[in-house]
Specification:
single chain, alpha/beta, 5-stranded parallel β-sheet, 10 helices
Length: 194
């Protein structure tokens, strides 16, 4: 299975590491590399990346390179308008929750534009959730507690707890925020419903 590779080109170490951490949680199958300068990216193999998260300053200094890779670029801004049309940008000053939602929306739009069907792999099928587990997952991501889920689905509290345990074991995700990210990434809920 091919692992997508993502490059983060950002001189600010904290920004680069923070974004890397978020992307690793959102796209666990991806290989994410950080570069503090454009020169470091060029010394690597710059054309192997599926996406480039690039600081606005680096983008403007090396526009020719990034224009050729325009569909793969996301410009990192610090809240200021980037004056770029048709190129997605990401405000790195947003709170983490909003940043995650923005990345997920950008990723979803990118998939709509490029639409590459992903074949199921054996790893995907062994983690497949049942229809009832998906229902429970959806309600968990909407913030319902176990008792509310039991009432809504007309099942016992013990059954809800059992489903949640199965979901956690199958996916290897323990936090509600991690489950929400998984649910959005797999199309079980919309990002604005979380």
């Amino acid at each position: 299975m091919h692992q997508p590779e993502i490059a983060i080109i950002e001189p600010n170490t904290l920004t680069a590491l923070g974004l890397r951490t978020i992307l690793e949680e959102l796209i666990p199958e991806a290989v994410i590399r950080t570069f503090s300068s454009f020169e470091q990216l060029i010394d690597d193999t710059p054309d192997m990346y599926a996406h480039y998260f690039v600081s606005a300053q680096v983008y403007f200094e090396h526009t020719a390179f990034f224009l050729e890779r325009r569909p793969k670029c996301i410009v990192l801004s610090a809240g200021e308008p980037t004056l770029l049309t048709g190129i997605p940008n990401l405000n790195i000053l947003l709170p983490q929750e909003q940043l995650v939602k923005t990345i997920m929306m950008t990723r979803k739009k990118g998939h709509e534009l490029t639409h590459h069907p992903v074949p199921a792999t054996p790893a995907d099928t062994e983690h497949e959730l049942t229809a009832r587990e998906i229902e429970v997952l959806r309600l968990v991501t909407k913030g319902l507690i176990n008792k509310e889920i039991a009432d809504k689905l007309h099942i016992s509290l013990t059954t809800v707890i059992s489903h949640r345990k199965n979901i956690t074991e199958k996916l290897g995700i323990k936090s509600v925020s991690g489950l929400a990210i998984y649910a959005v990434m797999h199309g079980y809920v919309e990002a604005d419903q979380v």
